[in-house]
Each structure stands twice: as C-alpha cells, then as structure tokens.
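Task: fold both queries, return tokens.
Query 1:
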Amino acid sequence: MSGVDVCRILREDPRITPCTPILLTTAGRRGRQERLDALATGAWELIGLPVDAEELLLKLAAYMASKFAADQTREESLVDELTGLYNLRGLMRRARELGSDAFRHSRALACVAFAPDVPSANAAAEPGEELWGAVDRLGRVFKMSGRVSDAIGRIRLGEFVVIAPATDEAKALKLAERLVRTAEITEDAEARLKVLAGYDAVSDFREAGIQPAALLAGATLALRRCQAEPGGEAIRRYDGDREGTTPLT
C-alpha cells in the first residue's frame, strides 16, 4: 500500500482529527504530481530523501505546537467534533439553561438517552467498525430530525442524549419512539439499525426539586437496563430513586 493510500485511510477515520499532522516520505526528488496527490489526500508534507534533519525537526515542532493548540481549543469547545452536536460540556450547560427556564415557569422537562444496539456500544469493549458506522448514522438522524427547542448531544462514544423542554413523561415516550423509528428506517434489511432508549421526565420541574443532571442520570440508567437485557424492551422509563444517581460519562 502506498503512503498516499495510507494517508487517505487515516483521513477517513473519524478518530484521526484534521489537526493531526501526517507526513509522507518519498525516495529521491519529489515530483509535482506526487506532491499534489499527497496534499489532496490530507498530508501536511511530502518529504523527499535524503532528509534535512534540522529542517524536519523544526517543522515537526511547529506542527505539534499547532496540534496542541487545536486540541486545547477542542477540549474547551461545547461541540462534539465527530457529530457536530453538543459534547457533554455543551449539553450540561444547555441543560442548566433549560432547567432554569422550566423552574421559573413550572414547566415539564425530560431527558432521553439513546444508543445503537451493537457490540461495544457501552464503550466497555474496543469500538468496532459497526459502532463507528452506527454513531455516524445516529448523529445525522439527530441533526436532521431533532427539534430545534431540544438540546442534543453525544456523551459517550455510542450514546446520545436529548434534553427536551416542555416535555412530560407521555411526550418523552413519543419523542423516544419517533427518533428510534427514524433511526431504524432503511430499505436495506441487512443495514437495519436497532436503537435502544431510556427516558426520565417530570411534569413540573420546580415542584420536582431536582437538578437537570438527575434527569440525565435517570435516562442513562434506564438505557443501561435496556442494554443489560438483550431482546427485552427497546425503550424504558426510569422508575427508580434518583437520590445518589450521577450521569455516566
């Protein structure tokens, strides 16, 4: 396999960020077309042999400083780079805003957690290609079918969360059913994706006297019960005691 082919495969992998420097080497002098091919596939540099070690080290130092700065910016961001939805930090900030509004107006508030029913979706095992594909598909479904009023994000590799304002228990169930159904629709039976969901909701957030994180914890725990019982219910309501629960991150 050529270096250009390797570079192309790496750039197509969602785990390799665009700010990750990839350098290719070639024997002898660099040809113009060879250089263009390398750049077109996402390489930062095509280096001809012999290598000027001092120049290469200076370039590597500059590239790594750039990547470090980009990584820091991404860590401080509120957006999940893989899906374009909220990350956990952004989701929790938005949840606090929605919770404050629900408290002021004594409105309902709900949280629904989703995960594809594929091996390693619980992130306890090494992620497989099936899971990466399912995450990409769910991300696109939520971006296209999610409500503008909702806060939608990815909290773990294969888990998505929707914080839904003005949504009581009955509406939370309908929301879960709609998004699960949308994610599973496909004309290819072999590519059909089964999605599990857990939800928690209160009809009056002020009266409930809880934090938004408690709803997130309830929804993720309900989702865990779906994952723990293969062939059981695809959608579950959290019906336990919220005391002492914390969101799983």
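Query 1 returned. Query 2:
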Amino acid sequence: MAVYDFQLLLKYLLEHGVAWAPDQEIVYREQVRHTYADMYHRVLKLASALKRLGVQKGTKVGVIEWDSHRYLEMYFGIPGIGAILHTINPRLAPENLIYTMVHAEDEVLIFHEDFLPLVEQLRPRLPSIRNYILITEKEEKSDTRGLDAEYEELLARGSPLDELPDLDENTQATLAYTTGTTGRPKGVYFTHRQIVLHTLVGWGPLAAMGNYGGIGKHEVYMPLTPMFHVHGWGMPYFATLFGFKQVYIGKYEPELILRLVMEEKVTFSHCVPTILQMIITTPAVKGLDLSDWKVMIGGARLTKGLAMAAKELGIKVTAAYGLSETCPVLTLANLKPFMEKKWGEDKQLDWAIKTGFVMPLVKLRVVAPEGKDVAGDGTETGEIVVRTPWLTPGYYKDPERTEELWAGGWMHTGDVAHVDEYGYIQIVDRMKDIIKSGGEWIVSLELENLLSLQEDVLEAAVIGVADEKWGERPLAVLVPAQGAEERITAEAMQEHLQKYVADGVITKWAVPEHYVFVEELPRTSVGKIDKKVLRSRYPAPPDN
C-alpha cells in the first residue's frame, strides 16, 4: 500500500484559518471590513484571474502595494497556483527597482495607483512584463489608464477556482531583494515548505514561551513591517493560520496607526525601531491607554532608552532577530520562567531587548575568526553563522555571492555577537560597522544603546571616522529630544558615557571625542539607520 506523501503547502495554512474562523474580520484602514470566508473566496478568484492571464507555475508576479487585505490575498493566491510572488520594495532607488524586476524576469506587475507615476517612469525599461494590473481605491474602476486591467474588476470577471491546486512543497513561492546597502540588491527566495515550517516553528514559540503571556487566539494583529519585506516577517501567514483578527494600515501614518490600535483593539504588532520611535513621539499618543499592545521589534537593535519610553506609555516590547536571507526569524527575546518569577522589571527588560534565544530547529553558532565557538561568557565575540530548514538556498542567479554566503556550509550573517550564560545572543555590531581603533574594536551598537539612555537624546548612531593616529575613532551622530536642542552638548554626552566607564560597561577608549547633532538620521528603504550615508557625510571628524 502506498503511503500518502503529504506536502507542506501555503494553501493549508489558509484553509485551516478559514475553517477555524470563517467569520473573523480582516480590516483595511477605515475602508474595508470583510471575513476570512470572504478573503478565501477572493484568493480563489485571484488565482483564477491570474490563470486566465496565462500565469502558470514559475511565472514571476511582481507586487508594489501598501500593506492591505489585497496583499494578504496575494500572499496565498499567487504562490497557490505555483507562480512566484515577487514582493517589490518601492522605496528602492529607480535604478535598483528596474534592476530587481529585470533580474527577476517579472511577467506580471500588480501595483497600487499611488505608484502609477513610478511605474510609468520605469515601464519602458521593463521588457519582460507583459501584464500591468492597477489597484485603485476609487469607486469608478473603468479607467485603467491604458493598462491591462484593474484589480477588483479582474477578480470580478470570472469564476473562482474550486480550490488551489496540489503542488510539490519544494516549489518556489516567493522572491524578494535585499536593500542593497553594498552593491546591487540581492535576490532571496523561499519554497512553500520553508515558509510553512517557518510559520509553524519560527513564530510558534510566541504562543507557548512569549513574554507578557505570549500571544493567543484572542489577538488582534496589525503588522507595521512592510509586507514587501520578507513576507512581513512571516507573521501574516501565522495570523491567518490561527484565525486572528487582522488590521492592515496601508500607508503608514502615525495618527491613523494609533486610531486603529484603539478602535480595533489591536493587541499585537511588529516593526523596526524607527516606526516605534515615530509612534511614541507623535502628539496623538498623549493620553492613550496602550497597555494591551504588545510590540515586537526587529530589523535593528532595540535600545533600552526606546524600550523604556515605550514602556512609559504601556507598550510591551520584545526584541527579535532575523535577516532577509533567513525568512526571517532566528531568535526571540522570550524570558525564561525563572526570569519572570525572580527578576525585577528593570533586569527583565535588559533581557527582553537582547537579540534573543534561538528558535526550535535553528542551529546557531557564534564563531571566532579561526572557526571556534566563542565562550558563553557574555564577552567573547564572533560572527553569527546559522543553519535552519528555512534559509534561502542562495542569492538568486548570483553563484559568487551565494558561495560567500554559504562558506563552509553555514550561512554567514555578518553580525558580530556574544552569548551569555543563559544562552541568549546579543549582537554587538555588524562586521562592517565595527570601529577598529588603535588595535582595539569599539562596538557602535553598544555606544548607541548607552547614548539612548541620556534624557536629551532621541536617537543615536555611531560610526567610525578616519583618524591619522589611531586608524579610526568613533563619531556619535545624535538627534536631540524635543526641547533639548539648546542644551545638548558633546561635554554632556561624554559625562554621561563616563558613568558606564566607571561601571566597567565600556572602556575609556570607547568614549567618542566627536559629536554631531542633527534633526534626523538617514534611513534605508526599510527604515534602518543608513550608516553608509553617514560615513559618506562624515569621512573625517568634524571640527568641534
């Protein structure tokens, strides 16, 4: 008797969520409110519409869209028929946008009307795209502006599929490109099997092991990580699997975010530190009760200063870690039971903002340059290398950089970290951001964290600048807190850091001599501080 070979497919995540919670709500801004059953019907109609356009297994379908109920449909409908969902980052420079779509060989492009001027600019240089589908939120849908179809009309034209087809679980499902901080953006790709495993195992510990009671079936989920960025960290798949109420914000606006949090009773979100900073500093936050809101932070280090500012508003924050190449989750800063029972809140917060503890099925090592694992003493540092079932096999059509990524059979993250006595990872810097000064390494992320604790500092970035005697010295680039512009000084910052020198947290040598005060820090297309731009602005110490 033949044994049935069950395949791990994205459609099974969707089907379970619909069966469990057919009447659960999915909300888009203040414009759309429908059920999981409605969403499933729309996924089947999208799949049918794409097949009528000639989309088949392996066809690349590019998407440029804000976070929305439509994007969620495309998460399932496009890979559900064996096509490949290419989530496009619209914040890339035009030349890099063209590169990613040409390199991916996209054949269909679905895009929001807000990006129509951009698409019209790029279109003459996108020879592989044969179908353009416009998303418009206007009531009148007939004007497709010379394009092939409008999204809602395309769905309305035909009958839905009876069900999504069976596929091999190793069928490629998605493709996305890194932000290209060095050289051209690099394509990372994942299969149905990898995303399903990541959904079940990667985020599963949030329920059983998560801080603040974890997440459960009563959650109201609102992602604040763009859905073009590594599947919105994969959480929309997890939320759909378990039938959470889902709220999609569209274009990020701090006042609307807070209004939806309050009106829809949002309990769980995730974002980069920049978005959290934007939310807690907007005037609309004053007087709101945000004590039911759990927010997971990734993409960059969660400083203690930012975590404490969020905590004052009632927001419960936890850190997580992953990369575009890792689907993305590798670690979560879940507290162990004894930490919650025996430690005070301040010490708990110190661990809740760490890079975190590895997820099940994640084999993570921190290795010294000679390849030996570092001691678990919280001080010895090395590079994080990793293996899990959900890592990208390589960079799409780029064997040379794939070989570098997977040197020695381990994925090299480029992150420098140490491991403490409890097994928690703490990233201390990117290898490219370590400041090499007088034969010693100075960790920029640690300095940024300590500077964030000074009351006059809103945000901090530290880079290395050329020094004739020492090779490099640290330069702190600071955004003053509101009202602190007149009183913040380099001397005050040095005095603040000297306290941590006295406590043995940093060495005297690590304290910067040079400080720059700016209105804002440059950002990458996914909201991280862009140190490449800072290094170009400040190649040498300023005169101060």
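Both queries returned. Flag for query 2: The chain is about 30% helix and 25% strand.
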